[in-house]
Amino acid sequence: MKERFTVLKSDAEIRARIKELAADISKDYQHIQPDNPLLVLCTLRGAIFFSADLVRELTIPCEINFIKVQSYQGTRPAGSPIFELGERIDVRGREVLIVEDIVDTGQTMDTVMQNFSDKGAASIRIATMLDKPSRRYQHLVDHVKPDYIGFQIDDYFVVGWGLDYNEDFRLLPDIMIYDPDAE
Ligand code: 5GP
Fold first, then answer.
1. Which pairs count as long-range contacts for 15-21, CB under 8 Å and 24+ apart, including other chains?
2. One pLDDT digit (tens) per residue for the chain, 183 residues
3. Residue 108 in contact with ligand 1 by CB distance below 6 A
4. 177: Cβ below 6 Å to ligand 1?
5. How far apart, in whole angstroms, are the C-alpha atoms of residue 24 and residue 133?
6. For a pocket test of ligand 1, which of 138, 152, 163 has the largest count of ligand atoms closer than 8 A to its C-beta?
């Protein structure tokens, strides 16, 4: 019998990994000064917990803001991603770190990076809690490469730790593989 939920990454593993990522990020952005702090853009809603834990571990000056891009319906991508929030955040001359829950086909991060690079960001990097490289659209393989990755995972649909299935399961404490068809 197939299980509906299977733990993929435990809460403890995720928290430990966030500390490591924060140390790497703080080191790479050591040059950041308080007059031009790192602009951390949390992608709503999936990355809320990841972003909150990550920024509180950073040892460099940073500012947090929020973006929202609609891309998934149920367990499948719904088409071209659309900005619902944050498209006009002023990024001119800013060093930007986009914080994402999961990079899958790469479409969402491609749209977001394109938007903020057109608007004159000084640099743009991506920190993602999860990466599913096997799902990347071929034309984005060389283009969408997250700079900081919590965990690379196989092609599963996952929920928990901010990730939802039609708004359910976001608050589950672990990252779980979710099979909606299991009994
Ligand atoms: P992409 O544009 O890279 O295909 O998809 C990125 C977005 O799709 C993520 O921000 C997330 O909202 C959603 N997504 C992709 N894979 C999963 C998954 O396994 N579980 C959940 N809950 N959302 C996913």
1. 15/53, 17/150, 17/151, 18/50, 18/53, 18/54, 18/57, 18/150, 19/57, 21/54, 21/127, 21/148, 21/150
2. 678 999 999 999 999 999 999 999 999 999 999 999 999 999 999 999 999 999 999 999 999 999 999 876 666 656 678 889 998 999 999 999 999 999 999 999 999 999 999 999 999 999 999 999 999 999 999 999 999 999 999 999 999 999 999 999 999 999 999 998 886
3. yes
4. no
5. 21
6. 163
Q: How far is the CA of 92 from the centre of ligand 1 (A)?
A: 28
How much is the pTM? 0.94
| Domains of the chain with CATH codes | 11-155 (3.40.50.2020)
Atom of ligand 1 nearest to the CA of 165: 22
